[in-house]
Amino acid sequence: MIRQTLLFTLLFAPVLVFAHGGEDHGDGAKPAVSANVAPRAEAHTELFELLVTPAGGQLTVYLDRYASNEPVTGAKVEIESGSWKTVAQAAEDGSYRAKAPQFAKPGQYPLVLTVQAGADTDLIETTLVVAEPTKPVAAVTSHGSGTMWWWVGGALVALGAVSVLLKRRTTRHTA
Description:
The model has no long low-confidence stretch (mean pLDDT about 80). The protein is an alpha+beta fold. It folds into two domains: about 1-20 and about 145-175; about 40-130, Immunoglobulin-like, CATH 2.60.40. α1 runs antiparallel to α2. The chain has helices spanning about 1-15, 145-175, and strands at about 40-45, 50-55, 60-65, 75-80, 85-90, 95-100, 105-115, 120-130. The chain starts with a helix and ends with a helix.
């Protein structure tokens, strides 16, 4: 019984090594992980919530009511950052846009937005974070099937050695 268990273990243990594949075991360089997909600034108060994104030399402000998440249209939105100040213009999609090519460069930009929508007025502070562009990460190379054949070959050699040893042991006991 012990001989059969040993033979079974030696035969099928190498197969278990290859029961998975393609996982990263920490040998390669890790790709950079960014917290945001695109540069943006988010903030909310009791009245409003907003999202600011820079693209194409302009800032786009998406403004909603905080309680109901309904878009705010027809508002006056003033944007300040340091000495720069502008009034965003309403767009057809319900957002507000302002020319701002200075936010294309990587950095952190403090923003103060003054929102006047009907009888509601609010001052909202946030920080626009524009990250450095990430460099492409080289593809992680796999060991490939060449390594697998070394393991299979080694297992066969070990299996042959064990069977020879077991055969010698059996012939000694019967003689």
